[in-house]
Each structure stands twice: as C-alpha cells, then as structure tokens.
Amino acid sequence: MHALYRLAHRVAAPLILREIAPFRTEPEGEGGFWVHVASVGELHGVALFLKQIRDVFPLWVSTTTARGYERAERLLGQDASVFRFPLDHPPALERVFARRPRALALVETELWPHLLLEAARRDVPLFLFNGRITPRTFHLYRVLGTFGPLLRRFRRLFVQTQWDAWRFWRLGASRDRIRVTGNWKRYFPPVRSRVWRREDLDIPGGVPVVLFASLRSREMEVVLSAMEHLREEIPELRWILAPRHFGWLPELLARLEQRGFSVRRWREGPVLREKDVLVVDVLGELVSLYPVADCVVVGGTFAPYGGHNLMEPVHSGRPVVFGPFTHHVSDMRDEVLRYSAGVQTDGEGLAPLLAHFFQEPVFREQLCRGVQALRAAGTRRVEAIVKDVEGILAALHP
User: Fold this and answer.
1) 10 Å Cβ neighbour count for 169?
2) Which residue blocks in 306-360 are alpha helix, DSSP H?
3) What is the pLDDT of residues 77-107, one digit of tens each?
4) pTM higher than the cut 0.90
5) Does residue 383 form part of some domain?
6) Is 264 within the bounds of a domain?
C-alpha cells in the first residue's frame, strides 16, 4: 500500500512543486520546534499554544494551504519562521529535516506518511496537537495497517475526545502517551485581526449593549419579542445583531423596522449612537465585536439548530446567554454552567433574564467572576500542555 502511495505521489510531484513554488518552502535557521497545520482553522486552534511555545523554543510553522500561510505570517510576524508544507514530497522534506528540527508537532489530522517516516528515521520527537480521527478514517487506517509503528513513535498525543483516544490506541499509539485535552478551538481564545471598542462604534458611555451572535432565521421571533419587551423596561438598551447567514437578512431588516426599531447596517458604517440596532451584514467581524457588548446571546440555541460556539464570548470576557438547543455544543455548555460564566434559558425567559442582568449588579458580577474563572482555566490548560512538552524534550535532550 505504501508503494502505491509513493507511485501516486511521484506522478503528482510536478503539480505539487508548481503550486508551492511562489512560497518559502523551508524554515530559517536550525533546531526549531516545527508545528504543521493544514489551514486557517487549525492554526487558530493552536494559536495560544504557539504564542507560548515561541518563548521557549525557536518556532517553525508550516501550512498546507496558501491561505493558512498568509494568515500565519500575519498572526505570528517575526516570532516564527513560516513556510509552505511541501505536501509530503520526500526531497523537499529532506531539506527541511536537514535543518535539524528539535521536535515536530502535527495538528488534528495531518498524518502524512512520508513526513512521519522521515521524522522516525531521523529520530525527531513527534507530538500530536488537538488530534482527532473520524470513524471512517479509523477503519481505513485499520485496513491499511501501516500506521501502528509510526503512531508508537509519538511522544505525546493530545486528543479531543475519549473516542479519539480509543481510536488512536487501537491503531497502535501507546496508551500512556495519550492525553484527552478537549477541542482546542473551543477552549482556547479566538484569534482576532483587531478588537472593536465601544468608542469605535460611537456608543455613549454607560449605554448597555447586547450582542446576538450567530442568529438564525427561526429564532427571529424570539429575539424580536425580547427586544420589544426590554425596550419598555430599559429604553436606553442598544442591540447588535450578527446573523449566521445573510439569506434572510432582508426579512430581518423589514421586521425590525415594522416593530419601530431604528436600524443601521454595518456596511453603512459601524456607528450605533443614533440607532437602536446595528446589524452586522459582513463576515469576519463577530469575534472582534464581543468586547463591545455587556453580554452575548448565542444564536442557534433558541431553535433546534444545536448551538454555536459558547466559549468565544467568554474568552473575550463576556457572559453568555443561550437557549435550550445545545446538543452540538454540550461540552461547552457544561463548562460554561460549571463555572457560572453564563445562563441557559428558553425563549420566554430571555427578556426577563436580560432585564435581571442589567438591573441586578450582584447577579451581573457573579457571572463576570465566572467568566474570569473559566478564562483562567483555559490559560492553565495551555500552560500545562507547554510544561508537559518541555518536560518530554528536556528528558530527551538533558
């Protein structure tokens, strides 16, 4: 089977080399801690780890995609040597390994055969960060039967779930080297290109703001009803609405105006002073907007969608409110509730809960303390992983 992989790779090599030719394909210097990610999503998942590990070792970051390369350069700047992964091309890999990496960490599912074989041949310590493996891939690897000896070369496998741990163990990884650390994309802070401040949006001091994040179409009536109720109780309250998708945006805008709300679209200029509602009709701003709000209502949870990321607002220092439909984010829900960093309610309870949040300082402070505790727990997770990796490498290279 490996012979077939080599043959296919030899045929594809000219296309591979042409695609990566415009980019740097080797790191600078020698002895770096090499972290390989596929693209932007995986990069963001390990960003906080990268920022801590670069204080300990010279950092190399390779990416499979051009977009990941560009994002890594913007995110890490001069703190890392960023290069394009040569798509498992043996001669190019040999040039990278000739620079004697101190260790190699693969992120999520990036288990490239030639890369693993070359690392094993040169005795480079291997790590897996935020590892996962689907049932389909698990069965494929079992049929191929080639990954067991390579997985046993990993010094530590940090995986997302107990199921992932079991699958990697069944494929041949050493049980005592596997650690379940959750999904890093959920538990570590999001990466922002910028952070919006209240003054950037021309929000007067002391004006309360609620952000509805990733709002879905079937939740519109719940949201509008809560807004109408609170307009009577807290007339100075301002709203930021960030729909998950824009296909139903015309209906949302029309319904807001029918109910007497003054509305401004982000594309018209992100200013909220003279309006009741700011509707975010562009992509990529949500994560940067969380710090503007006093609290964040997470969409996808007040209708049977299953929920969206509950941890992003928390990592921005904001309590979260969410509905009963959280079956896709049950792990995050449990974490948020355990630390009292947010509150779960239903559609009827949304307006009374938000009113209580703004009118009862003790309740608000309790949630804010829970947010800080949960953020601190995330930082401790990263520090523990960095310390574990440091300890392993120190034992190998005293």
Assistant:
1) 17
2) 311-315, 330-338, 347-359
3) 788 999 988 776 788 889 999 999 999 999 9
4) no
5) no
6) yes
